[in-house]
Design brief:
Blueprint (H helix, E strand, L loop, with lengths): L4 H21 L7 E4 L7 E2 L5 E2 L2 H6 L2 H4 L13 H4 L4 H14 L4 E8 H24 L9 H8 L6 H11 L7 H5 L5 E5 L8 H8 L4 E2 L2 E3 L4 E4 L12 E3 L5 E6 L18 H4 L3 E2 L8 E7 L7 E13 L2 E9 L2 E3 L6 E2 H11 L9 E10 L6 E9 L8 H14 L2 H8 L8 E5 L3 H11 L16 H8 L2 E6 L11 H6 L1
Helix pairs in contact: 5-6, 6-8, 12-13
């Protein structure tokens, strides 16, 4: 996405506005600190020499972020050096160490996505003994080799055996329920996005936080910032966003849904020229109607289809408020990855070539994002037509897993190979006739047998249970897919 320097300023303006809203419900936030797990990702250069990197990396590397202490609400437990450290282990370790050292000062904590914050808690589960040792001795683990990180942490770290004993006692208990409020007792809320695909992490967050409010503060994307949640302490299921017109020019394309199959959404085709002329302005949207967001930005995007489906939930004075429904056509997402049906279909087609020497092929398939463990991973259910005389070795199906991963986009592959935010892809082979059972079940719920199509992703729990009950074997990708920073075409050119 094209961006300009002023765009980063607008994003931080939106953050300041959001903090003013939150302070009405939680006074004196400026008297404490926020413990946020932030990190940068790898960047590349286009053939023309422009930097190409995720928007959050641009923000953290910008002068706007380095001068954030000018804001009373931008006092974080993590020094800038720990956030800007490119090594994900060293960055996470040092940020967690600083957060524990300042545990009494923390009034709010979180990460950009719910998945990232849960990863941080799971990191603490694995490494709390090392962290306690550092606090007890006033030293930093030798695995932290970045000199700027060590120097920044040593300005915060003090020898504190009493704090180390307290953390050790809490982390040694059998249950980690409420660990957040136990270790950071003054925390008022958890600041994470829990709308859209992130809603799958709400039960886990509730478990670790002992039911602290989960606050989805703002709505933004790589294209531009959009708006804020004016009722930040509402229930997670009731989150709505008020778009701020000064962030960009917003228009809306009406969406039509089909409910023949549970949790399936039939999106409208790409709007043609005539439909584009009939885009609805912000003042003309209708309550209860769903729209795809179309944005014109200061950075040069003109009537760009963001791909987000929004529903008009109500009004703040005369301003419409929107709930986030889903990403258009996105069927799988674990972290910041977004895999659509076409991309998955192409990946499966590439993978089934591994089966050709065994006279086998995939007769039907579907998928779902399994987040029961952290990191979550993609699961594909395959029903196969096989030749009994040429059995398929398990290693071949494992090769299919890797082929699918290699076929997915760079965001997914970075999550797998570099960030470790996505686990190995899994293929579960199901009994012959499983997808007939799936269709029968959907029809029993009211789906039209004439219009039924196998859903390429399932979220409805009974459907997942049906598929899992008929699994005959399970196979995982054994290695990480190839990934280097940048776009494949750029790398080929270089």
């Amino acid at each position: 996405m094209p961006t300009i320097q002023e765009e980063l300023g607008r994003r931080l303006q939106l953050h300041g506005l959001m903090m003013s809203v939150i302070s009405q419900s939680v006074p004196d936030l400026e008297k404490g600190k926020g413990m946020y797990f932030l990190s940068i990702k790898s960047e590349a250069k286009t053939p023309g020499g422009l930097p190409a990197r995720p928007v959050l990396t641009s923000i953290y590397k910008s002068p706007y972020f380095s001068n954030r202490r000018l804001s009373p609400y931008a006092n974080y437990t993590s020094p800038a050096e720990t956030i800007l450290c490119p090594d994900t282990y060293q960055s996470m370790y040092s940020q967690m160490l600083c957060g524990l050292c300042q545990n009494k000062e923390v009034l709010r904590l979180g990460s950009y996505f719910a998945s990232g914050f849960i990863r941080a808690i799971r990191f603490l589960e694995k490494h709390w003994s090392l962290l306690c040792n550092d606090i007890r001795m006033g030293t930093i683990n030798p695995q932290i080799t970045d000199l700027s990180v060590r120097e920044a942490v040593m300005k915060i770290l003090k020898t504190d055996p009493e704090l180390a004993d307290f953390i050790e006692a809490e982390c040694s208990k059998d249950s980690w329920k409420g660990i957040i409020t136990r270790l950071w007792p003054n925390t008022k809320y958890v600041d994470v996005i829990v709308t859209g695909s992130m809603s799958q992490y709400i039960p886990t967050l509730d478990y670790y936080s002992n039911g602290l409010p989960l606050v989805s503060t703002m709505y933004a994307s790589s294209e531009c910032p959009f708006g804020i949640n004016l009722n930040p302490f509402c229930k997670s299921s009731e989150v709505s966003y008020t778009l701020i017109p000064t962030m960009g020019y917003f228009e809306f394309s009406q969406i039509h849904r089909s409910n023949d199959v549970p949790n399936s959404i039939s999106m409208s085709e790409s709007p043609n020229e005539k439909e584009q002329q009939q885009l609805v302005d912000l003042v003309d949207v209708k309550i209860g109607q769903e729209y795809e967001l179309v944005v014109t930005t200061y950075s040069g995007l003109y009537r760009y289809r963001v791909g987000d489906v929004l529903r008009v939930a109500g009004y703040k004075n005369n301003t419409p408020q929107f709930t986030f429904v889903c990403r258009e056509n996105v069927i799988l997402s674990i972290d910041s990855d977004k895999t659509d049906e076409v991309e998955l279909q192409n990946a499966v087609e590439n993978a089934v070539r591994n089966l050709m020497p065994f006279d086998a092929h995939v007769t039907e398939y579907t998928s779902y994002a399994d987040t029961a463990n952290i990191p979550g991973h993609y699961v594909l259910f395959w029903e196969l037509s096989i030749n009994i005389s040429t059995p398929i070795p398990p290693s071949v199906v494992e090769d299919c897993c890797l082929t699918i991963e290699e076929s997915l986009d760079s965001v997914y592959r970075q999550g797998r190979a570099s960030d470790k935010s996505i686990g190995p892809l899994e293929i579960r082979i199901v009994e012959i006739g499983t997808f007939d059972k799936l269709m029968d079940y959907c029809v029993s719920l009211g789906a039209s047998i004439d219009q039924y199509k196998t859903p390429r992703c399932v979220r409805f729990a009974p459907l997942v249970e049906l598929l899992n009950s008929r699994v005959v074997s399970s196979h995982f990708s054994q290695t990480c897919p190839n990934w280097v920073p940048g776009h494949r075409q750029w790398n080929n050119m270089n």
